[in-house]
Design brief:
Length: 617
């Protein structure tokens, strides 16, 4: 298809949603295309729709801030940059993409089918590429025809003076978007390196604050050669630290560590060495490849950070940085199996902040410490202490969705199911759409027998993130239990392609193979699941059923016995009783059935089986 055809409304295509959108990141950086779409639709969309997706619209199109008031906010939005210490997870951009896709879909429901033409897609930032994938997946072709041109239009040749002039013109226009793309691009090619550094500084800081890690890495690596670590050490370190942080988030830990090594070679600043040591330790304990995690090496690095931070002369700076390092060491202690020591460290950090910082200083740091203290209290069997901390955290920052997930999970464990669901639904409302609250609500619904509700939640979680392995595993198991073996197999195989050793997916696959009569494959899958998770009850139960089905009642008894180790369950007791009877052990079978009837007095199958035993049949 030629470029001219792309930009025209063909006779078989719906009308254009917007004029053709240029996705070249050199224009407006991350979300160059997404921002153009949002900017075209927000002024004409229903006000209620604009308000519903305020976070997403403001993030992808920063120049819409006057048109799109901020309705949902974390307290971080009101803090100075130095106190906004939380770095967005890499999946933050997927949340934004899902929100924008829902906004577009709802708008199209009002207007009817449209065509969206996106040009220069080969030069798009990864945020826009992700957005285009989400638009394809979440908006059906009956509403949106998406035409994407990968061809790149060559840039006109400019001399340095012309680049200066173009950057000056763009700066006079005062848009944020240009400061993320075109202005840094032209300043780097102009005559004033200092103005290039300033342009890159703004873009790096904005992109890091928004969670656009690919852009931070690209811009930061372009900026570092322009700054002298000897004459401008603070600016150089800010670029290096931001860049390394982004690289670590993008699974490029080796490159991140190389930058921190460079900082150690170039700098003699205690603050820089402490931060580089802490960050190196976090790379080693959090490595995306579990096989490369090294908590012992991480402990050595973080202890070095603690040693340096302890000596910092400024009392308030020392309290904050040392508290940060102690919190990092607590994570390592958890990975080393020492949660009590971890709790002691987090408490030291809390006490430091309370004693040395002003009451309103570093609130995000304090909330992170309280949330971490809550998780450690849960590990140590003190759920009420954890709940008290999580209540405080949410009261202080009700606009941060992830804390609702933590509290909801705790409430679920405490059996307070309605309160847990309320927290999951608060998480759904507080920020852009993400799968975890739906996944967790599905578990509550499943536990209360609402299998259709659980399936709907898992469907939605996987619509938001098709690579959410835990949701694939749960949906595969649920579908297998419902007899939808084709869909269950598809989920199990999709999940195993992402995580080949996942025991829950292997268990679900084994259940499907067994239901479809492939006994050898079922046994192999269940054996693999138990090799990786020897306490997985569902796998023992399924393998017991398989053993019974293939004429091995003694093996079935053994497997059902393992499945019952966590606690009595009437269905498992019934199944073991049937196997015991077949193995010629009626007395033990009767005992299992009696216990099962105590647990489920209204179960007619248990009552009937017990009666048949008593009757000597």
């Amino acid at each position: 298809m030629s470029r001219g055809q792309l930009t025209a409304e063909g006779p078989d295509l719906p009308p254009l949603l917007t004029p053709p959108v240029d996705a070249d990141r050199r224009l407006r950086g991350p979300y160059t295309a997404g921002g153009a779409i949002a900017s075209a639709l927000a002024p004409v969309a229903r006000p209620e729709l604009v308000a519903r997706y305020d976070i997403e619209l403001r993030a992808v199109a920063p120049d819409l801030h006057d048109l799109v008031p901020s309705r949902r906010q974390s307290i971080a939005a009101h803090l100075p940059p130095a106190e906004r210490i939380l770095v967005h997870a890499p999946r933050r951009t997927l949340r934004l993409a899902n929100g924008l896709a829902e906004f577009v879909r709802e708008h199209l429901a009002d207007t009817g089918p449209r065509t969206l033409v996106v040009e220069n897609a080969s030069e798009a930032d990864p945020t826009d590429r992700e957005l285009l994938q989400v638009l394809r997946r979440r908006i059906g072709p009956e509403l949106l025809t998406l035409v994407v041109d990968e061809q790149t239009v060559p840039e006109p040749e400019l001399d340095p003076a012309e680049h200066d002039k173009r950057a000056d013109e763009l700066e006079r226009q005062g848009t944020v978007g240009a400061r993320l793309g075109a202005i840094p691009y032209h300043r780097e090619r102009g005559t004033d390196p200092r103005r290039a550094v300033e342009a890159l500084r703004f873009a790096v800081e904005w992109c890091l604050d928004t969670g656009c890690h690919h852009a931070v890495a690209e811009l930061g690596l372009r900026a570092l050669p322009l700054v002298d670590p000897e004459t401008e050490p603070d600016l150089w370190w800010r670029f290096l630290h931001s860049t390394a942080t982004a690289l670590g988030s993008l699974r490029r830990e080796d490159e991140a560590e190389a930058l921190f090594d460079r900082a150690r070679r170039e700098s003699v600043s205690p603050v820089t060495h402490a931060a580089a040591a802490y960050s190196t330790g976090m790379l080693k304990v959090r490595h995306h490849d579990p096989a490369r995690r090294d908590p012992d090496a991480a402990l050595a690095w973080v202890n070095q950070a603690i040693a340096i931070s302890t000596l910092l002369p400024d009392r308030r700076e020392r309290a904050f940085k040392l508290g940060f390092d102690l919190n990092g060491r607590a994570l390592i202690e958890v990975r080393l199996g020492r949660p009590a020591k971890a709790l002691e460290l987090v408490q030291q950090a809390v006490d430091l902040a309370d004693r040395e910082l002003a009451p309103d200083e570093h609130p995000i740091h304090r909330l992170v410490l309280l949330a971490n203290r809550a998780q450690l209290a849960i590990m140590l069997g003190r759920p009420e202490d954890a709940l008290e901390d999580l209540d405080r955290v949410i009261a202080a920052d009700p606009g941060y969705p992830d804390y609702y997930i933590d509290r909801g999970n705790l409430l679920h464990r405490l059996g307070r199911l309605d309160a847990a669901v309320a927290d999951y639904e608060s998480a759904m409302e507080a920020g852009p759409p993400f799968p975890e609250p739906y996944y967790n609500r599905a578990e509550v619904r499943f536990s209360t027998g609402d299998h259709s509700g659980a399936l709907a939640d898992l469907d939605h979680a996987l619509e938001l993130d098709p690579e959410f392995v835990d949701a694939l595993a749960n949906r595969a198991g649920l579908l297998a239990a419902l007899g939808e073996y084709g869909r269950a197999r598809a989920d199990a195989e999709a999940g195993l392609a992402l995580d080949p050793d996942n025991p829950y997916l292997l268990c679900a696959l084994g259940q499907v193979e067994m239901a479809e009569g492939r006994h050898a494959k079922a046994r192999a899958a269940l054996d693999r699941a138990l090799e990786r998770a020897p306490s997985l009850t569902a796998a023992w139960a399924s393998r017991g059923a398989l053993a019974f089905e293939t004429g091995d009642p003694a093996g079935a008894v053994a497997d059902f016995t393992r499945a019952l180790e966590p606690g009595a369950d009437p269905a498992l007791l019934f199944n073991r009783a049937v196997a015991l009877r077949a193995a010629g052990r009626p007395g033990e079978a009767a005992a299992d059935l009696a216990r099962a009837l105590e647990l489920a007095p209204d179960d007619e199958d248990i009552r009937r089986e017990l009666a048949s035993l008593d009757g000597g049949e």
